[in-house]
Amino acid sequence: MKAAMSLVGNWGFISATELLIASAILCLIFITIRFYRPQMPKGLKRPPGPWGYPLIGNVLELGKNPHLTMTQMSQKHGDVMQIQIGTRPVLVLSGLDTIKQALVKQGEEFMGRPDLNSFRYIGDGQSLTFSTDSGEVWRARRKLAQNALKTFSVSPSPNSSSTCLLEEHVSKEADYLVMKFQQLMEEEKSFDPYRYVVVSVANVICAMCFGKRYSHDDQELLSMVNLNNEFGNVAASGNPADFIPMLQYLPSRTMKIFKDLNKRFSEFVQKIVRDHYCSFDKDNIRDITDSLIGHCQDKKMDENAKIQLSDQKIVNLVNDLFGAGFDTVTTALSWCLMYLVTYPEIQRKIHEELDHNIGRERKPRLSDRFRLPYTEAFILEMFRHSSFLPFTIPHCTTKDTVLNGFYIPKDLCVFINQWQVNHDEKLWKDPSTFNPERFLGAERTEINKAESEKVLTFGLGKRRCIGESIGRWEVFLFLTTLVQQLEFSVCDGGKVDITPQYGLTMKHKRCERFQIKPRGRSFCRQ
Ligand code: HEM
Predict the structure, then answer these.
(1) 3-class DSSP state for residue 92?
(2) Cβ atoms 520, 514 nearer than 8 A
(3) Cα–Cα distance, 394 to 35 (Å, whole number)
(4) What beta strand segments (E) does 393-513 contain?
(5) Which runs of consecutive H residues, i.e. helices, occur in 113-215?
(6) What 3-state DSSP class applies to 313?
(7) 3-state class percentages of the chain: helix first, strand second, coil last, to nearest 5
(8) Per-residue pLDDT tens for 72-129?
(9) Which residue minimizes the CA distance to atom 21 of ligand 1?
């Protein structure tokens, strides 16, 4: 996700003066709040949780891997736990049943987004994903985005034998990657695949949003990819003003960089939308944006202003889809490659399955998913084991409610610990072992649906990822095309480091020692 903002992180960059002023004021507020704590409704309890310090709350305990610490804390305090990050109380939900109860059964109550300082700068506060709006306008915009994704992905491909546009774009990019990796092997003898995967995935989104594929050396595309990575790096260090709101009034270097990057990203998207506006399915989008405008704007507004607003919504839409759709898919694919080289035996089984069911002559297609259960199981296990989105995007409550007998007030920030669910010993045998077979049915010829549905990667309920199908399909098609034609390893049989580095999307350490061996006939385009 573009806004790879970590929930907490390295707070070492607050200056001593910032800290002193804020401490003094906040100690006072803290004491006042403790003294005048609101009364609990009768018969209900406050969620349990660890005791925190004034001003910083539990920040020190959370350390460098908050998903692991919160998992440990939840073992002591339970699936509904309240912690304090800075001055902000945060409800942390663990356990698949509790999370389903909150996000699905009580979906309306847990669907909000918190008013975090950083979120206000993403897409000028108009983002579908991050804005605090979860009412009528948000619903219309989510629908618009879902329709746009459908139009851009599953529509039949007019110019090729592919079954849909998505298959055509991914297949083309995956072919290019095979060719690029072969060329890198010849010229450099080893390479870092991430640098090339990221551009290919960005290209798929570009093709879907703008109907245009960029060359891998295109400066415009490369600058956007770099911008997004820079954004991820800054955001991964965490923004203290999100959790100590008072800090937003003090000058902050992180916030300045954050605003600047957001502005540059928006300008980039606006430029490409202007350049490629003619390739949008405007009638479809305008129909929906018109009804959206009807909800939120004065109906007497003149036509020009309506069109402008419509275009503005398209900019926001592209901003949302681009941001959400390319970092996630790139990260998933690069985790797949890491697991392939870490477990050569598993890679061999995927090769066997591909050879047996597709051969090496025909290109893999999306419809092959059901013929390749082991490969599908591998992808599921990658999602589960890496849990590279350890938390969903933060939620917040839209009204006072009760969960598992605990009183939960309106506007409380809620973290959903996906990592905990994916490593819960009550749900998984040996959760720390990477074992795709856990997802195969008794016959080993199909995926065990009940097991696969326990993996939590795309969130649940009203805020569930709208790009889930596209994300899964992209990962499948990129992976099968690469693995059908190439065998991956690292130089000298070396090991790679697959320890996740904390962030909203957790990455592994980059590895420049990848090697490939071609596996027979290749049908790459030159
Ligand atoms: C492997 C790929 C992907 C993963 C793991 C993933 C995961 C997620 C997660 C965890 C959320 C937050 C859910 C929540 O807050 O409860 C999310 C939201 C979202 N995702 Fe994805 N995603 C992926 C790919 C995509 C793609 C390809 C697109 C679009 C092109 C997309 C668009 C979105 C949008 C727009 C939201 C915000 C939904 C809302 O707030 O209503 N995602 N995704």
Answers:
(1) strand
(2) no
(3) 28
(4) 395-396, 401-403, 406-408, 413-416, 486-490
(5) 136-154, 165-188, 194-210
(6) helix
(7) 55, 10, 35
(8) 999 999 999 999 999 899 999 999 999 999 999 999 999 999 998 877 777 667 788 8
(9) 465
* Burial state string for 453-487 with b = 16 or more CB within 10 A and e = fewer than 16: ebbbbbbbbbbebbbebbbbbbbbbbbbbbbbbbb
Q: What is the C-alpha separation between 137 and 32, in angstroms, rounded? A: 37
DSSP β-bridge partners for residue 88: 85
Which residue bears the tokens 């992905």? 153
| SS3 state of residue 17 | helix
Q: Cα(398)–Cα(409) distance, rounded to whole angstroms?
A: 9
Most confident of 165-169, 232-236, 251-255, 345-349: 345-349
Token digits of residue 410: 């309106």
Distance 440 CA to ligand 1 centre (A): 26
If one counts every other C-beta atom within 10 angstroms of the C-beta of residue 184, the result is 19
Q: In sequence order, what are the beta bridge partners of 90?
A: 83, 413
Residue at token pair 């409380």: 412
Closest CA to 506 of 258, 320, 328: 328
CA within 13 Å, CB half, 504? 26
**Binding-site residue ranges:** 465
The ipTM (two decimal places) reads 0.99
HSE at residue 225, side-chain half, CA atoms within 13 A, is: 23
Antiparallel, parallel or unpaired: β 401-403 and 406-408: antiparallel
Q: What angle do CA 130, 173, 495 make, to 5 degrees?
A: 85
Kindly report the backbone phi and psi dihedral angles of residue 83, in degrees, each rounded to the nearest multiple of 5, phi listed first. Answer: -120, 180
Order of strands, edge to edge, in the sheet holding 413-416? 80-85, 88-93, 413-416, 395-396
Structure tokens that stand for 513 in this block: 């020692």
In single-letter form, the type of residue at position 27 comes to: C
> CA nearest 2: which of 130, 154, 176, 189?
130
Please name the residue whose Cα sits nearest to atom 40 of ligand 1. Answer: 129
Tell me the C-alpha distance between 209 and 318, whole Å: 7
Q: Which residues are annotated as a binding site for heme?
A: 465
- Identify the bridge partners of residue 417 per DSSP, sorted by sequence position: 391
d(Cα 516, Cα 490) in Å, to the nearest integer?
Answer: 8
Give tens-digit pLDDT for 20-33. 776 777 667 666 65
**Three-state SS for 357?**
helix
Q: What angle do CA 486, 488, 491 make, to 5 degrees?
A: 135
Sign of CA dihedral 300, 303, 305, 311: positive
Ligand 1 atom having least distance to the Cα of 388: 5
Global confidence as pTM: 0.87
Within 6 A (CB) of ligand 1 lie 128-129, 142, 145, 149, 320-321, 324-325, 328-329, 332, 389, 392-393, 457-459, 463, 465-467, 470-471
Pairing of strands 413-416, 88-93: parallel
